[in-house]
């Protein structure tokens, strides 16, 4: 089992500057690198302060200069927002800047809020068409001259400039949930990223079953793609048996905010949107702290080790420590350090 860090500049109000949030992110990444993590993943989000990340490639390029070994992954870029030439060129440039450490994760996109502003209001569910067109076009451009006549993009013979260090291309990952996306990823030789979000480990098992079904359907794929599972993660000391409540409360706030952005009707104010009030989730047991304690990766090092060992036994290649949880930087740093000190060594 490899480990990676999934991180954003989480900004919940204006009490801390964007510059300080960036420095906090850099510190977490450097801590993860020193602790043996293989990759840092940064996603793409627009006009949303709680996941401030309009330019993942810019952040990863900046991190290339402040790290030396950790790989640098987009987790993920949103396919409908990226022309294939731009995607190929920026991925290749990141690979050159970082000395061959680039990884590219791609997703169809989720927030209708972003599609209303970035894609003329197209339904977010239609993003899958763009993903399936972007992946082969980007891969071809990274390897040489290529002309494209697709449904969403058309262009004459072009190529990625510069060319990537990693040949034939940097690793490509697809965010997958549906059986169709798992199947497309495997058929096209792409690695897979999955997240059970607020669901428990039965969802982790179900997602692996979808991946294995896709593998079985494509025996022509010689090299097995890899699969990564992403979970909100918070560790506490066994000497503080109530410590889990801190992480559960933070993740509860995170998902209430996610709900406000994804399903709420209020307009944000200068990029901020209050979490949906707790009383609105009175009939949603998955938001209860006890439920989050069992679904999110919250616990002591021994408890977390046991659950990740189960993921390893299921066949997952990488566990990604999702640091976004509405907590303070010091709380995040302490949790990550505890994971590095007392969980990572169990998998070496």
TrEMBL record:
Luciferase-like domain segment(s): 1-317
InterPro entries reported in the protein's UniProt record: Bact_Lucif_Oxidored, Luciferase-like_dom, Luciferase-like_sf
Keyword tags: Monooxygenase, Oxidoreductase
GO terms, molecular function: monooxygenase activity; oxidoreductase activity, acting on paired donors, with incorporation or reduction of molecular oxygen
KW Oxidoreductase (keyword) present: yes
Residue stretches in coiled coil: none
GO cellular component: cytosol
Name assigned to this protein: Luciferase-like monooxygenase
